[in-house]
Amino acid sequence: MGLLSFICFFIGSQFNNLFDIIWWSVLLAFVVNIPPKLNKKLEKETSIVVNEVYKELGIEKGRLKYRIGLAAYLLGGILGWFIFYGELIRS
Q1: Other CB atoms within 10 Å distance of the CB of residue 19
Q2: Contacts of 19 (CB under 8 A, 6+ apart)
Q3: Which residues of 22-53 are buried (b: 16+ CB within 10 A; e: fewer)?
Q4: Domain encompassing residue 12
Q5: Per residue in 26-75, pLDDT tens?
Q6: pTM score over 0.90
Q7: At 54, is the secondary structure helix, strand, or coil?
Q8: CB neighbours (10 Å) of residue 75?
Q9: Distance (Å) of CA 86 to CA 15, 47, 49
């Protein structure tokens, strides 16, 4: 996931004046994929269902892997931004 975000910035850096589009699209993809807060009354039931879905897909600790992937996506985006657009800002 981090590599995916990094590649978005790499591709965007190859074209002129695409900084705003790439930055906002990566940020929007991150925000949209943040899991919603659970209803307090249904939290336990929802948690059980989500864990069962991950087990059916053959993914152990699916929630943890999802959150790690989301954090990696954000880190890859920040790293890509610094590497590929740092020179544009300095120039």
Answers
A1: 17
A2: 12, 85, 88
A3: bbeebeebeeeeeeeeeeeeeeeeeeeeeeee
A4: 2-90
A5: 888 888 888 888 777 888 888 888 889 989 989 888 888 888 988 898 88
A6: no
A7: helix
A8: 14
A9: 15, 42, 44
State how many domains the chain has. 1
Structure tokens at 67: 């959150």
Looking at residue 8, the DSSP 8-state letter turns out to be H
CB 83 within 8 A of CB 11: no
Residue with tokens 């590599």: 3
Q: How high is the pLDDT of residue 8?
A: 82
8 A C-beta contact, residue 25 and residue 8:
yes
Type and span of the H or E element at 65: helix 62-90
Return the biggest CA–CA distance within the chain.
55
